[in-house]
Amino acid sequence: MGNCCSDVAGGQSAVGGTGKNQNDPAYSPNEAVDAFLKSRGYQGLYSQIELSLSASSLRDRDVLSKSDPMAVLYSKEKDGSLKELSRTEVVLNSLNPKWITKYTIAYYFETVQNLVFRVYDVDTQFHNQDVKMLKLEEQDFLGEASCTLAQIVTKSGRSLTLDLVCGEQSSGQTHARKLGKLTVLAEESVSSKTTIELRLRCSELESKDLFSKSDPFLVVSKATESGMVVPICKTEVIKNDHSPIWKSVFLNIQQIGSKDSPLTIECYDFNSNGKHSLLGKIHKSLSDLEKLHSAGTGANLFIPAALGPNQQNKVLKSQLFVESYSEKIQYTFLDYLAWGYELNFMVAIDFTASNGNPRLPDSLHYIDPSGRPNAYQRAILDVGEVLQYYDTDKHFPAWGFGARPIDGPVSHCFNLNGSNSYCEVEGIQGIMMAYMSALHNVSLAGPTLFGPVITSAAHIASQSFTNNERKYFVLLIITDGVITDLQETMDALVQAADMPLSILIVGVGGADFKEMEILDADKGERLESTTGRVAVRDIVQFVPLRDVQNGDVSVVQSLLAELPSQFLEFMRFRKVQPTL
């Protein structure tokens, strides 16, 4: 940077990976290949956030002039260690600096991103050094502040003002000595909002099926810097068609890199067992696809050559055409947060007898005296830790199901707090306390029914939407068993899909959770009610706790990565647009 001084006193999740047709309100997405994409590295979307810093009323550590402040930004890792991310320039002779240097950070909804800010007064003898070379222990410490990235982006105007305190007191102690204020402003990168809408078709696809035509779908992938090919977008599956025209897909420029970045487009024949057959592929950039659209011409697909010397790709008669191509700015998940939308957390806990006697250590409901959380507590803490930042009052509806309250019949939706009139508890700890209290006040019973709790959650979401409240609801269901009301649950989900609601299901224990995968709809057809009505969107995410608890991917990341996309899908389905 050269001279480090200045004399100036001073989330996409956006659109991305689904084939949504925003102009068709009746459109229901086909999620048939989600699991296939995830197995190849498909993850949730993110937004690039630019952070700007300013401070006021800093301490004056200089004798003959005012302080010369510099800010340092850190991320706080899970083990509590700090990783330095960026340093601002030094602002000379100012107790109210507005730093010019910005820092761009990737916002991930599904993780808690803890940030720490430290402000230093840089000694005069170091003013001609690059800020990166400064030894912080040689500078005067002016104060520290900490927050999460979610706390910034959910604030009105995406601006959060924090008290600067002494380093050892920055954890939030009530009597920490205040040393001025630090303001953090977050601005979403325009590239997070810039999307390309494509409508693609193919001609003369080959048949891979013996008695019928192929069932084709497209997967669009990009190459990472390491050379790994990562899927970023898919179309729906079209049944029995060799000249398919798919619904529009939306590609985020930020996610791709640029319009000239190479893309791989693969056409597969869908198979219900997940072993999809390649019908052909092609390498094109967005610029190339734009040219195909302008010229009205197609490009031939090919089958990659077999391994070995002098092998060549097999060029096919099949061609890819670009029916429509347009570039536009879309509203993002963060735009709705800035408009005042909140995510309201709800939880429903399985109290059926298959969990085992809560007093015995082998029970899934056993409360360990050492404080080690059981599977139910861990799921509540992990999901709640993320969602609590998006709910201002932190009053969470909490239910139990499959148990017999004292002197009562088996209930499949009872208030966890024991009240007959209201279902809310205060904060994540309120859920934990109500859960432990319920274990002493109900008798575990059965069977396992989801329909009543889903209906209760959907009723709250429906009332909120009718009252024009800016709220989207997230219901966490934690269960150990196979549900016995599958069709009733599907009926409730088809109705709930019309409401501002997503449902996260965590399976605990060793049960067979195949029916949960049906509800998730990632590997099969869209849910259909007994009356023949098809769900307008997929609102369920399911994960067995045992599949991810020992891996690098947490339950929270597995469950929450798709929430922003489901949120945006609802907003577009209902034609809700923020006024910014």
From TrEMBL:
Native species: Nicotiana tabacum
Transmembrane segments: none
Membrane topology: Lipid-anchor
Any one biological process term the GO annotation gives: defense response
Residue ranges of every copy of the C2 domain listed in the record: 28-162, 178-302
Subcellular location: Cell membrane
GO annotation, cellular component aspect: plasma membrane
CDD domains: C2A_Copine, C2B_Copine, vWA_copine_like
Keyword Cytoplasm: no
Main location: membrane
UniProt superkingdom: Eukaryota
Record-level Gene Ontology MF annotations: calcium-dependent phospholipid binding; metal ion binding
Pfam families reported for this sequence: C2, Copine
Annotated gene: LOC107822761
Protein's UniProt name: Protein BONZAI 1 isoform X2
UniProt keyword terms in alphabetical order: Calcium, Cell membrane, Lipoprotein, Membrane, Metal-binding, Plant defense, Repeat
Keyword ATP-binding found: no
Alphabetized InterPro entries for the sequence: C2_dom, C2_domain_sf, C2B_Copine, Copine, Copine_C, VWF_A, vWFA_dom_sf
UniProt record similarity statement: Belongs to the copine family.
